[in-house]
Amino acid sequence: MIARLLPALVAALALPAVGFSQQKPATASPYADPLATVPKLQAIAARPGSELADVVARFNTDQGSLTRRYDAPDSPDQRGRMRGFYSGWQTRLKELDFDKMGQEGRVDYILMNNYLVHQLALLDRADKQRAEEAGLLPFADRLLALQDSRRNLQDVDPRIAARTLSEVTKALDSLRAQFDPPAGRSAPHVSKTVANRAADDVDQVRGTVRAWFKYYDGYDPMFSWWVKDPQAKLDDALTKYSKMLREKVVGMKPAESASSAAPRGNAADEAGRGDNTGPIIGDPIGAEGLKEDLRYEMIPYTPEELIAIAEREYAFSLSEIKKAAREMGFGDDWKAAMEKVKNTYVEPGKQPELIRDLARQAEAFFDQHDWVTIPPLAREDWRMEMMTPERQRVAPFFLGGEMIQVSYPTDGMSNEEKLMSLRGNNPHFSHATVFHELNPGHHLQGFMQARYNPHRRLFATPFWSEGNALYWEMFLWDHGFQVSPEDRVGALFWRMHRSARIIFSLSFHLGKMTPPQAIQFLVDTVGFERANAEGEVRRSFGGQYSPLYQVAYMIGGLEFRALYKELVDTKKMTDRQYHDAILEGGAMPVAMVRARLAKVPLTRDGAPPWRFGDALPPPVPAPAAPRRTS
User: Fold this and answer.
1) pLDDT of 550-596, one tens digit each?
2) What contacts 588, CB < 8 A, 6 or more positions away?
3) What DSSP letter does each residue of 592-612 carry, written as one string?
4) Which run of H or of E encompasses 44?
5) Which spans in 276-302 are helix H?
6) Cα dihedral 303, 305, 308, 314 sign
7) What is the CA radius of gyration of the chain?
8) Spatial separation of the C-alpha atoms in residues 435 and 355, rounded to whole Å
9) Neighbours of 191 (CB within 10 A)
10) Separation CA 195–CA 461 (nearest Å)
11) Is the distance from CB of 528 to CB of 536 less than 8 angstroms?
């Protein structure tokens, strides 16, 4: 292993580890050679494919059509139509002759069936959640049915519609009154989690009713004459009701409640919602929910087993960061070493230059090896924007893809917010993750997905996307990219972070850790700035991400690491063949990547369970520091 590391280490030592603002890497003009970014078309024309590529594409198109058609979220018609759609596709899928398919077709069959089973399971989960909210939202289906009727092109009777809105308004007033009851009456007893979810659903219903009203208002004079006043009163009643739930049951302050109450649904602008303040509630899915989601991701482990893997990985990172701290003169006080690293931030206004230089430095490092194909156009087409202060509250670090979004202080932030953002986005933290976001990480993933097997974007999973990007972090660590102890501290911050994500997110969904405890856990075990820890936990439990999203980074990375050992270390594939095949194959659970590349025998029920943790290579420690001489 040492012999394998030495050439990369020597090459890495030639690259500057600090002083990135002085680096001005040259970028070749894209106009110099018009053919440089145009692929050889014979290779594209001759590319073999899956027999089910058109089937998956047709399903995806039809699903999109129905999603747009049944646009009242969680309405009676929407629930019934989508359940029938998924069940119907399950029936049709079984009619296909699985045994006559090639490996790529069988992979798509299994992925398609797995997707359908999961969508039906999610509908069952939504039914269970709706039952939990029934006492708080007895009016929801009645209001959502208005939009269903409009989409069904049924004539509207303005007088009946006005009466419906008036009756629901009275019911809402009665419900609100139960939370300020006279003697002898009591409010419905619900948890903060259910009340918070119900408040969000009230806002969603309000957005749907607004869109329904807007369609008719002014175009149908009799409709406006009858419905305008009842709709205004209903809108006000729904607003007060969701506000009351957030303040009296969830425990939000009035300003926080108002920020969370932007209407959702057809008339909503999701990007404008202000859910970045107030208590973090979350909605744990429990052991059964985790079991289903892990089944869908083809992870044959219990949450407890995954937590044990995370603890093992954390122990390695802790040992390595203490080693780096000793090299920096701090003994085993790794938090003191991290404090020094955090305070190396560049001045305001200079972060875009740093990101640019780090991106080019990573590409130059890859150019010295033969690890993966980065097409010339993929080096040219990515771009950069600055993140808004509001977005930074839930995304304290930069985000990537074709457009990298830079998280750094603005002049309108408080001094505390500015300092935490500066420290959390220092050059050494960024050195270990710019390539995660750009090439060969998220940007190259999206670039290749759009050009190879695009039908498989339906099966996108963070275990593939985040897992593969995290895999590159471990891969470059193994190959000596992090030269200085400061850069190693930066890389280990993220590695510890990804271990902690598994522990706190699974513990939360199992009911063993609260959001405030998760924030403190990140501060204590990873050295997070508190504001950044809060943003991380808010992002994890705010509903924008799937329950296993944060688990997927390291677990997906370890799956790719185990598969590398199986295919590359045994000389069955070269580095470049392995990495290109992953990107060209498209997104899917990593167990199915293995099925494709290792030609695992498949049945209609899928591949045999893959206990990837049993075959993981040991983590690679950093090379010993050279002995200091006086």
Assistant:
1) 999 999 999 999 999 999 999 999 999 999 999 999 999 999 999 99
2) 107, 111, 456, 459, 461, 464
3) HHHHHHTT---BTTBSPP--G
4) helix 41-45
5) 286-296
6) negative
7) 27
8) 10
9) 12
10) 30
11) yes
| Cα(580)–Cα(319) distance, integer angstroms | 33
HEC per residue, 496-522: HHHHHHHHHHHHHHCCCCCHHHHHHHH
Which residues, 6+ apart, have CB-to-CB distance to 419 below 8 Å? none
Q: Is the pLDDT of residue 390 over 90?
A: no
Q: How far is CA 379 from CA 36, 41, 132, 373, 402, in A?
A: 11, 20, 50, 11, 10
User: And the tokens for 547?
Assistant: 């329950």
Q: Which two tokens stand for residue 295?
A: 């089944």
**Is residue 167's pLDDT more than 90?**
yes
pLDDT of residue 417: 85
CB atoms within 10 A of CB 127: 12
The maximal CA–CA distance of the chain, rounded, in angstroms, is 92
CA-based nearest residue to 540, from 519, 512, 511: 519
Is the model's pLDDT at 501 over the cut of 90?
yes
Helix or strand (DSSP H, E) at 385: strand 383-386
HSE-CB of 614 using CA atoms within 13 angstroms: 6
Tell me if residue 115 falls in helix, strand or coil.
helix
Helix (H) or strand (E) segment spanning residue 45: helix 41-45
Q: Is the pLDDT of residue 22 over 90?
A: no
Distances 614 to 238, 300, 309, 559 between C-alpha atoms, Å: 53, 12, 11, 11
CA distance 168 to 237: 9
Residue with tokens 């400061």: 486
Rounded to a whole number, what is the distance in angstroms from the first to the last CA of the chain?
31
Question: In sequence order, what are the residues at sequence separation of 6 or more whose Cβ sits closer than 8 angstroms to the Cβ of residue 521?
Answer: 500, 503, 504, 513
Task: Give the pLDDT confidence score for residue 388 in this predicted structure.
Answer: 86
- b/e for 563-578, b at 16 or more Cβ within 10 A? bbebbbeeeebeeeeb
Contact 71, 147 (CB under 8 A): yes
Instruction: Give, to the nearest 10 degrees, the angle between helix 462-478 and helix 549-567.
Output: 60
Mean pLDDT of the chain: 89
The predicted structure's pLDDT at residue 124: 98
555 residue type, one letter: I
If one compares 198 and 391, the residue with the highest pLDDT of the two is 198
Q: pLDDT of 457-466, one tens digit each? A: 999 999 999 9
Query: Given the structure tokens 């275990």, which residue do they identify?
Result: 463
